[in-house]
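Hey there, shall we discuss this one?
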Amino acid sequence: SRLVALLVERAQQSPLLICLEDLHESDSASYQVLNHLAAEAGTAHLMVVCTTRPLDPDGDDDDLRRMLQEAHRHLHVHQLELSPLSARQTRAMVSSCFEREGLTDEFLELLHRRSGGVPLHALQFVEALLSRGILHEEGGLWVNRRVDDDDVPETVRDAIHQRLDALDEADRNLLGLASAQGVTFKGV
C-alpha cells in the first residue's frame, strides 16, 4: 500500500511512466501490487506499461490471468495484443541494425521463420550470428555467409547460451556477478 501511495503521489507531482517487462515471470505478490496500483491510479498522471508473452490457454498462468482480469475491470486499463512482424517488417527491422547491408533473401526468410516475427527473437538471433561471424562486414557492407538451418539457433535461450559459451571463464564469472546488480552496475 505504501509503495502504491508513493507512486500515486509522485505521479500527481509530475507524470510518471513505469515499464515492466516479462510480467509472466512475476510472482503473485507483484500481481497484487499491480492490481492495487490499477485501482488507485485512475486519477493520477501515471502510465504503467507491462509486457507479457501470450497466455497459453492450457498453461499454468492462473495468477497472471486473474490479475489481468481484475485490472481490466478499471476503465483506464487497456490491453493491446501485438501481431508478429511480417517477413517484410522483419527484414526492415534487421536492416535498420546495419548502416549498409547486403543480407541475402534466403537468410532473412530463415530468420523470420525461426523468430516467428517476434522482434526480440530476431534481434537475439542476429546478435548470436554476429558473435559467431556468420554475419560480418566486408568493405563497409554487412553480409551473411551461406546459412543453414543449423546456423540459426532454435530458441532465444539457445542464442544467449551460444553467446555466453563464447566468453572465457573470467568474463562469465564477471557477468554472473554483474547480473545480481541489475541492468546497470559499477565495475568495482
Q: What stands out?
A: The longest strand covers residues 16-20. The radius of gyration is 21 Å. Residues 28-40 form the longest helix (13 residues).
